[in-house]
Amino acid sequence: MQHTAESPILVIGATGRHGGTGATVVDCLLRRGHSVRALIRTDDERAGELRRRGAETVVGDLHDRGSLVPAFDRVRAVYFTYPVAPGIIPAAANVASVLSKHASAAHLVVMSMAVSALDSPSKLGQAQAVAEDIFIWAGLNPTVLRFAGLFHENIAVLHQRTIQRDAVIANSFGGCAAPWISGDDAAEIAAAHLLTPRPDSPRISYPPPAEAISHTELARIISATAGRPVRYEHISAAAWQRQLELAAESEHPVNVGMAQHIAAVGAALSGRSKPLVAPDPSALAAMLDRPPASVADFIRRNHSHFATDRT
After folding, report:
1. Fewer C-beta within 10 Å: the chain N or C terminus?
2. Mean pLDDT, to the nearest integer, of 98-113?
């Protein structure tokens, strides 16, 4: 079906918690006056908030092809992001199938990661690469944004509990200068791509990180902001993965797939003298029309997450 300039842009992952890029994409598009449709799995308070902000919502499950068809009706562009969790390959297959049949001319923009590769040390990185291949094999000519930085939001997701309880950040990154970018900045870049014409061939890019900061330096920044000493401790990938797996058994937002992913990425980066892609804040500023957010900005805005746990 043909789309027009008034056709909606579909945002998948608008109620996601990790990084929260989908919600930011929705807000960016609404601010610019575009019609936005959000795919939601459950019609809950988060979905209600999307409607209050001006988005249309459609209930669907990425692992149930039939449920996706109404969401793709007449769309002119689609933002695809998937949780840092297993399951992206069947989800991508369903999206590719529905897009090919119901909105084959739509511009598909994929939120990806620099470690998306068939030989990635991360199982999720391998699965991400296969998902991207599915979109390409389907002839959808996606724009794939393999962001080459850890999202600032990872700091709270992965380390908030141990910072609050033990005043320690423990992981497998070692002394390497880890690459960082704000999830909101990544989402703004994705939103801008959604408003461009679909490319004539698949387009894969590696937007750079804003800065490279070791976890030792990160601990210093948190210490200065929180007003108490926080230290960094290097542990093996296996030890960190096990810690995260144990946390995943509770109500922690980490899952088993994420545990393997981030522990493996940390170990891989720990052996490098520099990031996979060099930081380039000037390039990001050109994309964003403003300076990119820094890790220190994130810590200052979220200082309460790193206060002492008094429970």
Report:
1. C
2. 97
